[in-house]
Amino acid sequence: MVAEEFKALSIHRLRALESPGLGSRSMSYVYRPATVTGIREVMETARSSGRSVSVRGTGLGLADAALNAENVSVELSRMDGVLFWDPSSGRVEVEPGVTVRQLWRHVIEDGWWPPVVPESMHKTLGGSVALDAHGKNHWKAGSIADHIEGIDLLLPDGSCLPCSPVENEELFRAALGGFGLIGVVVRLRLQMKPVSSGLLRVRTLRSRNLSDTFAMFEAWTGRADYVRGWIDGCATGPALGRGVVHIATHVDDDQNPVQTLRTDFQELSSLVEGVLPRSQLWRVLRLLTRPGARFLNEAGYRAVGYFPGGERLTPLARFLFAQDQAPGWQRAFRPGGVIDYQPFLPETMARPVFHALLKRTHAQGLFPCLTIIGRHRASKSLLSRSMDGYSLSLHFPITAANQKTLARTLDRLTDEVVVPAGGRVLPASGLVGSDQTAAQAFGAESVDRFVALKRAYDPDEVLQSDMYRRLFPHA
């Protein structure tokens, strides 16, 4: 792309962009540079036009973090090169547009796997860094920040700085999980982990209630490599918080690792259980936005009983990338979208707070269509929402009828239940009237330090997003 194309904003670059859950939408001038020079030119064009710039990967990140209404959006999907790979050490260097899928396909046949992966393999590594992504092994392996050896960070003034745990360390911590608001990650170096098989040994257990769910986590997090729980968000009374806990460990006695470490062995089948086309699974999920949600939750809970006891050998990709099991799942929640309300609580407070959250949302007639519980540890990133404890991810469909009640209820839960217990809340979007702040998501002290760094490295606030203006209104 020639430099002249960047010199002025063109109406032909306007595109409607949506958040992952389709709860937020905006029009932006979208540019897709393929080089660092191209990014510099976009930022200069935006600056001269009085516009701000947001950074975007595949658009599967967090809420409205990559949206930038009536401003410029830089999409980095064309910067997708694997620049260096050493199969003897597991060190890899990539551009930010490389997806998690590209990465694992590049390294698996050499006996390596990314140490931390998000719920979708279609997210970019640049986006994963900007969100400090974690996976089903967060309490054990940490977030992606724990495995990055260094990044090259393009600042709004056009300079590019190497950042790592030993060089420009504070800027490094601010960029990890910094939502692209400090600088643009244009190169990153990661350490992969060795695997001797492409299989996981997976055990699925059914819990009777919330206490039972916590007991299973406590029993297995010391032994397993991955643990994640699903909760029946419609269960009430003595069954409140019942669910299914998935436990997985890497196989170390694979009789045919050459076969299981093949990329084609890992790819998801086009059919679910050999019957339903995966591309049509989102139509079934539409039941989650209607009274059928109770039936679907009940069926999901009861189905575990048909596969009792024992263990199943499952390919890594099939177990770890849950979001990809239903391509285009977001379409099930049109036209209003879905909000992910995700509080993180210290270990000692998680059980009573999660109990209160389920009870109080039910009392308002709000039943989550999907509820996920996870175990975590504190992150190295400056804007970290995680801590040594648990998270409860509550997904609510947004409708014209429930939007005001949903916003009011979730704001009150944040103010009255989560924050007083020492918790933090994922910065969700899509709700009119929500008054969430950055301090509630990341902690006041961390926010103050981040804002100070942004003023130092981006004094003109070139890098912004809808989420930045929503959570940092007085930055």
Report on this structure.
This protein is α+β, with helices and mostly antiparallel strands. The chain has 3 domains: 3-77 and 455-471, Uridine Diphospho-n-acetylenolpyruvylglucosamine Reductase, domain 2 (2-Layer Sandwich); 82-194, Uridine Diphospho-n-acetylenolpyruvylglucosamine Reductase, domain 3 (2-Layer Sandwich); 199-437, ACT domain (Alpha-Beta Plaits, 2-Layer Sandwich). Helices cover 29% and strands 23% of the residues. The chain is built from 16 helices and 22 strands. The chain has helices at residues 36-48, 100-107, 125-130, 138-141, 169-175, 210-220, 257-260, 263-266, 281-285, 292-303, 316-320, 347-363, 403-418, 438-442, 444-457, 466-471; strands at residues 14-18, 25-31, 53-56, 72-75, 82-86, 91-94, 112-113, 148-154, 160-163, 184-191, 193-194, 199-207, 226-231, 243-250, 271-272, 276-277, 312-315, 338-341, 343-346, 370-376, 389-397, 424-425. The strands form 5 sheets. Strands 12, 13, 14, 17, 18, 19, 20, 21 and 22 form a 9-stranded antiparallel sheet that branches. Strands 5-6-10-8-9 form a 5-stranded antiparallel sheet. A 4-stranded mixed sheet has the order 1-2-4-3, with helices on one face. Strand 15 and strand 16 form a beta hairpin. The model is unreliable at 1-5 (pLDDT under 50).
